[in-house]
Design a protein that fits this description.
single chain; eight-stranded antiparallel sheet; 23% strand; binds fructose -6-phosphate; 614 residues; Glutamine Phosphoribosylpyrophosphate, subunit 1, domain 1; Rossmann fold; alpha/beta
Length: 614
């Protein structure tokens, strides 16, 4: 939710700021803006509704020569996505500029107070109060020191924030604050940098400083970065993180869009994750730092996540209950945070989050920590808040996922969940070593099974025609594949804006069947599994109503092929792992439908990759 960048140093700021915004655009793309300190000692900037590309066009016509500046790409919370609500926001004097990611919950009281004191506001955002609070502090107790002024301003705020601020009265300096929303910094010979995440800094450094919640930082033109506590004491050894991601991993590399690239990267992501995980002692997950006795004592597991990651959680429950014989509760984090939980000394919470920054998921983890549970995170982003705040981290190592629509993180998270399940099952004695090895060997075949599906993308392209005149679609599946149906429907509506609903196939007759009419597309996942016959009966019910049935079926299943309009074929796959293979067809199908409808698959409207507000 919102991407922010800042730079001060010896080079021109605008090129880095615009490149940084392009990299962070997946975090929000309602509007964008940039503010720099001109040679005449005045702030000047450009901001507009729309994408970073529109901002870049306007910047090309503006004089933004400066070696110090801040910039922002927005996902609107308070105030419509228009020019006046775009960041950066200025104070009344035009000498303070801020960019903010997060929500200021008490902005309304603060705004009333500031207006009563004579401040005038130029936007409808919650963020603008920060600029005015800094204005007062600069003229008062902070005596022209932007870092002190930001600290005094933050002391008045409630909510969450990453703020980057600059002032014409403290030239060449950038002040940063963090509470709840992510912010990373870099100190280099060429200057000092701030950004919402490491992808924006991958081209300038391989080592970042991670600001902790409640910390502040000062970035100076000589490239130095100093970190301070809430009370103003300097932190002698801030948290460093070495980035081993290749900067080119976040570029298109010849693909038409990131969604296409990331779908195709799934086999390699899974290979990376599986490498070296099987030893003579079973699955190796030492990074979790939990003893066999502690595993054997686990009485209940809560799995908490949002969106696509929540779908991984649903399948995780089935796996853990079947193989590790531990009761599992799985909840969307946004609901979980308002529910009562039963926690004992032996309760485990597993959060699943690609970004590691989803506010609801982090709040769930904190709630479980407070209740005394051990918390493990399955995440992609190195050094993310989820990783830092958890007792154990299993990185999925999928590399940067840029497309807002999650694809490779979904399948990698699922494989991570299988590894975790095998680990727990083996260590608590529910699964024998031989069985663990057999399941692991099955896992190692997944990359090739997915490659086979990727080679069949023409089937998805052809099936996309069935959605040309549709206003809605239904996705059906049974068992673990009712979750595949849910994830397939989410992909379709997210990138194509076509309404889609998922249902357990057997439940269709209890309501959704009323939707069916000739031409209505119904996607049914019907692999060669224990419920195949039952699912075929549901296909018959669909066909009897004249609806158009598209089936995901196992190679050679002529019974299914003879019934339906289109088949998306998957190679024979062990039953529990079908969701990891079948979803690849549904990802490609959603993409083709979206492209046919003229949608931007990487940046669907209203969405942001990292949802840092509750
Ligand atoms: C859908 C999608 C979202 C995310 C959700 C959670 O394609 O990407 O539903 O899965 O916002 O995000 P993370 O996994 O980063 O916590």
């Amino acid at each position: 939710m919102c991407g922010i960048v800042g730079y001060t140093g010896a080079s021109q700021a605008a090129p880095f700021l615009l490149d940084g915004l392009k990299t962070l655009e997946y975090r929000g793309y309602d509007s964008a803006g940039i503010e720099v300190l001109g040679g005449d000692g005045r702030l000047r900037g450009v901001k507009c509704a729309g994408r970073v590309s529109s901002l870049a066009e306007r910047c090309a016509k503006a004089d933004l020569r400066s070696t110090c500046g801040i910039a922002h790409t927005r996902w609107a919370t308070h105030g419509a996505p228009n020019d006046r609500n775009a960041h950066p926001h200025l104070d009344c004097t035009g000498r303070v500029a801020i960019v903010h990611n997060g929500i200021i919950e008490n902005f309304s009281e603060l705004k009333d107070e500031l207006v009563a004191a004579g401040h005038s506001f130029a936007s409808d955002t919650d963020s603008e109060v920060i600029a005015h609070l800094i204005e007062d502090a600069m003229a008062g107790d902070a005596a022209g020191d932007i870092l002190v002024a930001l600290r005094l301003a933050c002391a008045r705020l409630e909510g969450s924030w990453a703020v980057v601020a600059m002032s014409a009265d403290d030239p060449g300096r950038i002040a940063c604050a963090r509470k709840g929303s992510p912010l990373v910094l870099a100190s280099t010979d060429g200057g000092a940098y701030a950004a919402s995440d490491i992808t924006a800094l991958a081209g300038v450094t391989s080592r970042v400083i991670q600001l902790d919640n409640g910390q502040f930082a000062s970035l100076d033109a000589d490239g130095s970065v100093r970190v301070f506590t809430e009370t103003g004491d300097e932190v002698s050894s801030p948290d460093f993180l070495d980035i081993d991601w290749d900067a080119s991993a976040a570029t298109l590399g010849g693909y038409p869009d990131f969604m296409a690239k990331e779908i195709s990267e799934q086999p390699e992501a899974i290979e990376r994750l599986l490498k070296g995980r099987l030893t003579d002692n079973g699955i190796e997950l030492d990074e979790l730092e939990i003893s066999d006795e502690e595993i054997a004592a686990i009485d209940r597991i809560y799995v908490v996540a949002c969106g696509t990651s929540y779908h991984v959680g649903l399948i995780t429950r089935t796996l853990i209950e079947s193989w590790a014989k531990i009761p599992v509760v799985v909840e969307p984090a946004s609901e979980f945070n308002y529910e009562d939980v039963l926690v004992t000394d032996h309760t485990l919470c597993v959060i699943i989050t690609q970004s590691g920054e989803t506010a609801d998921t982090l709040a769930s983890a904190r709630k479980m920590h407070e209740a005394g549970a051990r918390v493990f995170a399955i995440t992609n982003v190195l050094g993310s808040t989820a990783a830092r705040e958890s007792d154990g981290v299993l990185y999925i190592q999928a590399g940067p996922e840029v497309s807002v629509c999650s694809t490779k993180a979904y399948t990698a998270q699922m494989v991570a969940a299988v590894l975790l399940t095998l680990y727990l099952a083996h260590r608590n004695g529910s699964m024998a070593t031989g069985e663990v090895s057999r399941r692991y060997r099955e896992l190692t075949k997944l990359p090739d099974l997915i490659r086979t599906v990727l080679d069949r993308s023409w089937q998805d392209k052809a099936a996309a025609h069935e959605f040309e005149h549709a206003g809605s679609a239904l996705f059906l599946g049974r068992g673990v594949n009712s979750t595949t149906a849910a994830e397939g429907a989410l992909k379709l509506k997210e990138v194509s804006y076509l309404h889609a609903e998922a249902y357990p196939a057997g439940e269709m007759k209890h309501g959704p069947i009323a939707l069916l009419e000739p031409g209505f597309p119904v996607v049914t996942i019907v692999p060669n599994d224990r419920v195949r016959e039952k699912t075929i009966s549901n296909i018959q019910e669909v066909i009897a109503r004249g609806a158009t049935c598209i089936a995901v079926a196992t190679d050679g299943d002529e019974d299914v092929a003879s019934l339906v309009e289109r088949v998306l074929w998957i190679p024979p796959t062990p039953e529990y792992f079908v969701p990891i293979v079948a979803i690849v067809h549904l990802q490609m199908l959603a993409r083709y439908v979206a492209l046919a409808r003229g949608c931007d698959v990487d940046k669907p409207r209203n969405l942001a990759k990292s949802v840092t507000v509750e």
